[in-house]
Amino acid sequence: MGMHVVFSVGTAGSGKSLLTSALREWLEEKGWGVYIANLDPGARNLPYEPDADIRSIIDINELMEKHGLGPNGALILAVDMAAARLHEVLQDIDEASPDYLLVDTPGQMEPFVYRPSGPLIVEQLPGTSKVMLFLMDGWLVSNPLNYVSIQLLAASVRLRFPVPFVQLLTKADLIEDQVDRVMSWSSRPSELEDAISSSSDGEAYLMHRRLLSMLARGGYIEKPIPVSAVTRAGFLSLSSALANILSGGEDLQD
């Protein structure tokens, strides 16, 4: 069937690495061959053992010392270099040809999403089909103002990458009493507007209401899948969504 590529993107702390690790275990339990590529040159401790690792060819500390850069500048340079040297990172994966390649993107999403290197990496990665998971930090977006801001961010990411796009509401196990409320905002924008009204006033209220109206009219408010990398809640729904996109409905649960 060829190799399917799944990218995890989201704000710092949204749980990209944990989800990548848990999804690998889930897919391997179903009998699929799964590799992970770590594209975060600044990662220190990962919850998985990467099969391909940008840190094996790019040392962010060396970049800081050699070019007199701070951590953010070195991260930007490293991600740009990753696009140019991607074939070196993926050498072993090309030979192994797994069923699934899970790509864990940098913790700070800006260098990957908003510089030319990110779209180049997505385009260059070999694979018969690709999908981008956008992780919304469940604890963060339980606030209606944050929810609108992150949905705006999700829309901008969606426009940057011409691949299928799936939103995930992460850390569902930590916000069990709020999941239904957050989920209702995506299908009933009027409830979200009421929540915005209760949480803000003046210019903040007007701005968030206008942003909400723009996103709703454009069809950019997508219903996320609530998931937990700890309890695996929502993984059946996630695997079903991946099956529909990547395999034309081929069941990932078998």
From TrEMBL:
Pfam families: ATP_bind_1. Gene3D superfamilies: P-loop containing nucleotide triphosphate hydrolases (3.40.50.300). One of its GO terms (molecular function) is GTP binding. Coiled coil: none annotated. Keywords: GTP-binding, Hydrolase, Nucleotide-binding. InterPro entries: Gpn (IPR004130), P-loop_NTPase (IPR027417). Belongs to the GPN-loop GTPase family. This is GTPase.
